[in-house]
Amino acid sequence: MWLERTKWVLANIGWPIAFTFWYQIIVVLYAADGTISQWALYYFHFLWIIIVCSYFSASFTPPTKCRDVEKVEHCDKEIKEDVCQLCNYRKPPRWHHCRRCNLCVHRMDHHCPILQLCIHSGNHKYFLLFLVWPLQLAIFTIWHGYYDFWKTIRSVYTAEILSTSEQLKGTGVSNALMVGIAALYLLKNQLPNLMRNQTLIEESRENTSYNLGSWQENVKSVMGAWTIAWLPFSVTKSREKKFE
Ligand SMILES: [Zn+2]
Ligand SMILES: [Zn+2]
């Protein structure tokens, strides 16, 4: 467990630093040479704040643990008999045992090796926001810096010497490109499941459907009402009322 905990702590330090460094490269360098508008700067600030908030919300929202199931009122008798063979707690539908965390968690999606945490009913929304908002930051960075990226690529072939500022911009845009591709790839797997109210585990192992009737209702069950869907505000209470 200490190894998992250490990896989680390192991720908590590394990710915010990585995003702050990226944001600072863009803001400082582009603001310094005046190639970015005031509104674009404000938007960069907004993106950075919301990304860091989404990350910490995902990281510090604990899962509903199996032992808490005792409090759930809507389980029928048959379901109450299900016991996890690994931790010996009751395991109603949509609870899954995570071997890395060594506990059963509600609506487990997967144990994320990049963020070093379990994605479950409590933090799934924040995890999705941590894909959607960095994707926007990546698009915004590429939009502003595609020429610097091109110059960096070109310099490899022409042996042109770039200034430190140009090199940093090229690095920032390369970083944005990698993060953008990774976020798109993960969203390609996540969004169809979000629209079906299904987790990755349920997609691969179960035949049960938890579809609420329409993709809008399915999305809202994870993201909350449309007004707060794309902001890192909790929807756990209303969701648990609905499903448990
Ligand atoms: Zn278990
Ligand atoms: Zn886990």
Rg, nearest Å: 21 Å
Shape: elongated
| Main sheet: strand order | 1-2
Q: What string gives the helices and strands in order?
A: HHHEEEEHHHHH
- Low-pLDDT stretches are 71-77, 240-244
* SS-derived structural category: mainly alpha
The domain count comes to 1
The hetero molecules present are: zinc ion
Largest sheet: 2 strands, antiparallel
Strand tally, please?
4
Task: Please report the distance between the alpha carbons of the first and last residues.
Answer: 29 Å
Helix content: 55-70%
3D structure, described in words:
This protein is mainly alpha-helical. 61% of the residues lie in helices and 6% in strands. It has a two-stranded antiparallel ribbon with strand order 1-2. A hairpin with a 4-residue loop joins strand 1 and strand 2. One zinc ion (ZN) binds next to strand 2.
Please provide a brief summary of the model:
By secondary structure, the chain is mainly α. The chain is built from eight helices and four strands, in the order H-H-H-E-E-E-E-H-H-H-H-H. The protein has helices spanning 2-32, 38-60, 77-80, 124-158, 164-196, 200-205, 215-223, 236-243, and strands at 95-98, 103-106, 110-112, 117-119.
